[in-house]
Amino acid sequence: MADNSLFISKYTPNDFHAYHSLVMDDDVMRYISGTGLSEEDAQAKFNSILSINAQQGSLGYFKVYNHQNTFIGDCKLERSKDSCPALEIGYILKKDFWGQGYGTEICTRLLALAHQVAPTLDVVAIIDPENTASKKLLKKCGFRSFFIGVENGLATEKLIHSKISK
């Protein structure tokens, strides 16, 4: 997928350095894992990402570059791990690119891809309830909250972009 401002493509084995540069940052990972990942943990997660990408066709984990070909973050669109049939989106941006509209553009692009791949499925996003920036971005893109609580020992908020009219 490409347009004038973002280029998004699936991770390949050669992308570990870029991935690690993103997930090692404590501030970036604050609402995801609580802290940046060690190289060993990042490698394990990256291997999982490559495995998912090999199995998912159009879905998976994607690296994101801006129009200047600078790696700015990543995103995902995958089948929800919950029992309900849905797709799940996620995104992470390097700090230098926060607040510049990239998150909204990534979300919009993932929703468009979700509509192409599975037009009848709802799309969910799972965030830390304290991540007000992501909550605001998701609501701007048409998501609404449907769960706030604790899941797997972590504070969790789930939002849904429903295919059924509200």
From TrEMBL:
Instruction: Outline the extent of the N-acetyltransferase domain.
Output: 6-161
Q: Which InterPro entries match?
A: Acyl_CoA_acyltransferase (IPR016181), GNAT_dom (IPR000182), N-acetyltransferase (IPR051531)
Q: What is the recorded name of this protein?
A: RimJ/RimL family protein N-acetyltransferase
What are this entry's molecular-function GO terms?
Answer: acyltransferase activity, transferring groups other than amino-acyl groups
A family per Pfam: Acetyltransf_3
Q: Which UniProt keywords apply?
A: Transferase
Annotated organism of origin: Arcticibacter pallidicorallinus
